[in-house]
Amino acid sequence: MATPHHPAGHGPATGNPYDAPGGQAHPPVWGSATVPTVCRACGGGTAVNFKVRAHTGFLIMMRFEHLDGPFCRDCGLAVVRQMTYRTLIVGWWGPLSLVILNPLTLVWNLVAHLKYRALPPSAPLPGRTHLDTGPPVLRRPLAYVTLIPLAWAVWVVSQIVSHSS
């Protein structure tokens, strides 16, 4: 039996990937402003593909993490909160991390937060749920661990300024 081919005659036909469970309801329209996507966590119908980042600073080393979307509003906010919370706790413990990389990661996650918050709410697929958003980042007590390295940095800068004059 011959293998079916695409209409153009190039390669075997593989079926419609949009019929798969969790797939898109219809193929994306390339060149248009919107490309329909579904949330990778809950299957919600309105999602945006944006990367969320976390940063861990060690004394002389550092580690970068990221999680790609697409995520719906609730799942995206849950991922942003979790990654931002982790960054606030363990992101400051290196010189480059304290001054440059952790603040940039937090700004990136703020942009991600604004993107996901702007989405309309969507319902998850039957049998699936949104990721747990938990409390906002600044209502989590360990987020204030950030104040320790920031206080130290302010002290160092003030000592340098006071001793240089």
Question: How does this model look, in words?
Answer:
The protein has 165 residues and is mainly alpha-helical. Helix content is 36%, strand content 7%. It has three helices and two strands, in the order E-E-H-H-H. It has a two-stranded antiparallel ribbon with strand order 1-2. Helix 1 packs antiparallel against helix 2. The N terminus is likely disordered.
Give a topology summary.
Layout: E1 52-57, E2 62-67, H1 73-90, H2 95-117, H3 147-164
Antiparallel strand pairs: 1-2
Oligomeric description of these chains: single chain
Placed side by side, the strands forming the largest sheet appear as 1-2
Number of helices: 3
Low-confidence stretches: 1-33
The major β-sheet equals: 2 strands, antiparallel
SSE succession: EEHHH
The percentage helix is: 25-40%
* Spatial separation of the terminal alpha carbons: 88 Å
Q: What proportion of the residues form beta strands (DSSP E)? A: 5-15%
Structural class: mainly alpha
Instruction: Tell me, briefly, the overall form.
Output: elongated
What is the mean pLDDT?
Answer: 81
Gyration radius over CA: 22 Å
Keywords:
single chain; 165 residues; mainly alpha; two-stranded antiparallel ribbon; 3 helices; 2 strands; 36% helix; elongated; disordered N terminus
